[in-house]
Amino acid sequence: MAFSHSQLQNPSSSRKRSPRKIVPQFVNYRSPSGSSQTEASRAPKTLYHFFTKQAAKAEATKVLQVNGNTAKQALVIDDSDDDEEDKSGRHLTRKLFSPSPTEKSGAEYKGYSNVGQMTNLSMLRDDPTQKLVPISSLNEFESGPSIQSSTRDGIKFPIGIRSSLRDPHVELINNTNELMDCIPEPQPSLPKCTSQNYEAQTFLFAYESSVKKGLFSQTDNRLLVKFFSLNESAQKLWLRLYQRKHVWILKSRISYELDNIDSLFKELVDAGFLYDKTHLKDMKILLQLLPQKSAIVLGRQFCDPKKCTTKAAAIEELTAHARRKDALFGAERIRHRIIKSGQKLVEQCYFVESSLAAAVTRVLTLISLGSHFDAFTSAADKNDHGVCNLFTINQFVRGKFAFPEYTVVDVLPILFGSPEDFGLYCDARRHVFRLRKLMETHNWDTAVSSFEEAYKWFMNSYTKEKFAKDASLPSFLHRFSYSHCLIRCLVAGAEIFERHKRYQDAVDLYYTVLSQTAFQQNQRGMYWNRLLLDTDTHLKLPRNSICFAMLGLEDCIAPQHKFDVYTRAKRLSERFRIALTQLEEFTPPNDAPIEIIDGQLAKRNIIGRRNVFATVDGTGERVVGPERVAVEYYLHNGYTNGVHGETRSIHMLFAVLCWDVLFSEPSESEPGVSTPTGRALTLETESQAIDRLFNRPEIVDISDEDEQVDETILSTRKRRRRRVLNKTLKKKKKVTTIEMEQIPHGNYFCSHIFSEEKTPTLKDLKLQKAAYINEFQSCPLDLGYPEFYLNRKRAIEEHLATLNSMSSEEIVATAKANYNLYSGRLNPLFDWELLNADEVSSLLACIPVPILVAIFRQLLIDFRFYRSGFPDLIMWNERTRSWKVVEVKGPGDILSTKQRYWMHFLLSLGVDCATCRVVATRSRKIRVQNNNGDGS
């Protein structure tokens, strides 16, 4: 949100917005009877009113011609003028397409008999030569003898007609064709997809779009064809149940506006797509579905009635009773009898059949690959099958969002190869999704059992050939492979084990992930940091941790992750007095200047928020964050505008000036190939690191324990001599040679499963250019990967050279044109509401062109690293053409690694940037600030 100095001086005035942001408000009108009515309650605007007015105009002119008046065209008026005469001489002018007034009674119309002919008459009182003579209607004039008229200078005037006697001629102008040409033609649109049938239509569209790719098995195709043969209402009912939790659902909790819903349930059950209560064989679930009275009745039927007083007690007794063994048939007979009796008591319930649910999931997965609604939707917003809801997909299918223009490359058949490979990927994706959803909802207990189940499935289905095939894909297509899902599952399991303080298992999983370098290359630094933390802090193995730190500094990881590894390695090296050559080769980022300002604390703390400040202006007290405090400070100290957008601000400038390159397709004839250059963590590399650091004779362990002193010797000496001896003995230390061993491993250590990695060779160059594989993408798939720059290197360099040759005025004109052209297009970088076109233009006018080009070059080359971490505020002054970037920190906040690197980069370009620390004053009394910024 952008701020200006004028807003601080007049807080009650709203910020000037562009016309597209203005929200129309309802205006209250006053009816003739005095009651208020809104515009919505008035008659609609239609062409009927226009043609009615034209006809009335022609008839009135004809009346004047018959009476011998050769003046102007007739001006037809409405009786609503009579109500406006008393309001200080003001009147309302009815425009061409203005809504007609509501129907009135005969008494209110003062003698008008045909209201429909008089509702759209225009008013004009500006010409003083025109006079008003009321009549009953125009039809009465044509009727003959009953016409009411008045005579003036020998000319008859029909009542209600206003005319001038100065012009000798009357012209009839037919401008209907001209007005009709101004009316826009109706645009073609998709057939309406109402809330009654959008599920079935959207799924049918998804199936017809996906079945052509040949990635569904024959079993899936037979199931789906049988499903589409059902009644459309039955399809709709099943799809709605599919989108709910995959559990048994009571019929009373299924309330949809469908006709004959019982027959629809029967049709689905007969087709085998739904299970009813007769298929419910799980006694635990059955007892939970029973209402309290039925559970107590069932418990008293099989157990002691005195103990079955509540539902929980009845379930406990029935569960214990089911574990007992029958003398002849064992425990299963007792369980079977309880289930049979429970099925009679429980309400009808339904469960979605799993094979059809898996087929539908594969259809929706295939249409969602690479799409905006799949990539930028959290796990909590998806259904239990890992795909977006049909309503979300329907909004994209119906064109509710505008996307950048591109050409879709159909590589999915090449990417997966066979229906079996695609089915394996869908199953792996579903396992990962379940883990992520449990982690997002902080259900850590269930996540452990879910990970163990997923881990067993991956270990049973994994093959080295499959891993090698997936590793040969371009890095930006790894996300659509089975092996990528395996790595994500291991990382999720490590985080789950850390939550349960099972650090040994977490270390084994991180070790396994770091033993390969093909997948998750941009996240390897984060895994190194977690491994160092667990081994040093939790497992109390600092010497093994420093060995891992040395290997992490030698690995090819992101700068912000390498800085974190460097910080921990430096602390460990000082602790053990070991000189690491890798520390000398690394250059940490420079820090920006620090500016300190004061901020008044709010009167009360707000739960869930920290660093809450408050300001007082003409509208009263406002609770704000430290960023708003800093904005107000800089607006009173040399700057006229400011925006708190963080990285979105620079991304918006980046997009409006580099849109054509940013959303372009790969253009190089020979696409570049990025090969993994990291160093894998194996048992061999760990052993070599230990030998290099510790297993050398000059490395010693300095213990803190003192040598034992014979108390009998000390007792025979003098007191002074004993104090001197004690002082001397305390300086002695025990010196021993270190014998280091490798870190111990547990059951989840499986680094040997990955094959030896080689440079990937692409058999099909079409995959390397597959940046767009879905018609609902908001950005290319390779954005954030090395392939993005390699595949567009020539076009990027030419575009940056063109920008560098432009003047500041040309940059502003280009940005404004692109803003108006692409405004509203969906993109993952920023929101169009952040800055309007005028604010973008004024900001770009203050930034030197070489600095803009340098920032854009970094974003185009390494977008993944620079996609976040930009300072919070951008302040600029339109008059002095100066700008400043500010990172705001409240009490107790520190700079993140990415923020430090952004500051380091901006300082190297000569940008005025600073770290603003807002210090909370001790007094919670808020001082009112005047327009000059002084406290009063």
Automatic annotation (TrEMBL):
Which cofactor is essential here?
Mg(2+); Mn(2+)
Origin superkingdom: Eukaryota
Q: Name one Pfam family in it.
A: VRR_NUC
* Entry keyword Transmembrane helix: no
This molecule's function is given as:
Nuclease required for the repair of DNA interstrand cross-links (ICL). Acts as a 5'-3' exonuclease that anchors at a cut end of DNA and cleaves DNA successively at every third nucleotide, allowing to excise an ICL from one strand through flanking incisions.
| Record's keyword annotation contains DNA repair | yes
- Its source organism is Tropilaelaps mercedesae
What is the catalytic activity of this protein? Hydrolytically removes 5'-nucleotides successively from the 3'-hydroxy termini of 3'-hydroxy-terminated oligonucleotides
Concerning InterPro entries, the annotation shows: Fan1-like (IPR033315), FAN1-like_euk (IPR049132), FAN1-like_TPR (IPR049126), tRNA_endonuc-like_dom_sf (IPR011856), VRR_NUC (IPR014883)
Q: What is this protein called?
A: Fanconi-associated nuclease
Annotated VRR-NUC domain residues:
806-920
Q: Which residues cross the membrane?
A: none
Which CDD domains does the UniProt entry name for this protein?
FAN1-like
The subcellular localization recorded is: Nucleus
Q: Which UniProt keywords apply?
A: DNA damage, DNA repair, Hydrolase, Magnesium, Manganese, Metal-binding, Nuclease, Nucleus
